[in-house]
Amino acid sequence: MAALLRGMKKPRRDLPDDPEEFRLTLVEHLEELRSRIMRSIGVLGGAWLVAWFFLPPVYAFLNGVVDAAILPTVPKGVEFKEVFHNATDPFMLQLKLSFMMALAISIPFLVLQIWGFVAPGLKPQERKPFKALAPYSVLLFFTGAGFAWLVLPNALRWFTSYLGNFNDVSLYQEAGTMVFFIIKMLIAFGLGFQLPLVVFALGALDLLSAETLTKYWRHSATVIFVVAMIITPSNDPLTMLMMAIPLVLLFSVSVVLVRFVQKRKKKKAQLAESTGDSE
């Protein structure tokens, strides 16, 4: 605990213009990494503790959303009930769900810790795009989570509608399964909507060109669909399309932005070169 408090109180360092001035020894790098990991664990642990105590009302709210979406679609005569199969299941459910809530709360701080570790190795012109993108990263995360929140009730109704195709069945669902599914979907969509910022940052660092992105747009779209299939919790085609189609559109927007930024940088370089020649 003392080590954690020392890590939390560590003063902020001013970043030099030249990364060479910030060159550290291997031991100093490991110390920096250890400090940031300890801070991240401390914040995640604190958020986990808070989420543990606030889980019951949050669970009741999310489970109410699930019931409101599923119950009207359940055919008459079909019994719908949430059940536990073991005495340890309620504790394990609260443990897992509270951790997922804590992770969702802590993501902005964890990203800041990663940025703080990487930033000293970048030049000023390389840091600038990342600093400018930070507010948009938060906005896109909540946009992705909000999009998932809007479409999830319809998706749940669509899945449940197939119960009518089978006779003499009951729907006994593991308690917390759908609430856990909702939280994972919100996080997955929030992270998935970071794609345009990743593409834009790579373009701003001249690691990708707009021409390359345009030339290989089919390959990029395929990769997006594969990634959407991997990170969506349910792995069903409907959910995959719900994520992949908006991501393809956002990818197209990011290509346009990369083209604009790179043209602007090229004009500045030409202007600087012509100014130098005239002198």
Description:
By secondary structure, the chain is mostly helical. It has a domain at 1-9 and 26-123 and 152-175. Helices cover 75% and strands 3% of the residues. It has 9 helices and 2 strands. It has helices at 2-8, 26-70, 89-118, 124-160, 177-192, 195-204, 210-215, 217-231, 237-278; strands at residues 80-83, 171-174. It has a two-stranded parallel ribbon with strand order 1-2. Helix 4 runs antiparallel to helix 5 (177-192). The protein is flat. The termini are far apart. 19% of the residues are buried. Residues 1-13 and 18-22 have low confidence and may be disordered.
Task: Summarize the entry for a quick read.
It contains 9 helices and 2 strands, in the order H-H-E-H-H-E-H-H-H-H-H.
User: What does the main sheet amount to?
Assistant: 2 strands, parallel
Instruction: Provide the succession of SSEs.
Output: HHEHHEHHHHH
Structural class, judged by helices and strands? mainly alpha
Helix content range of the residues, please? over 70%
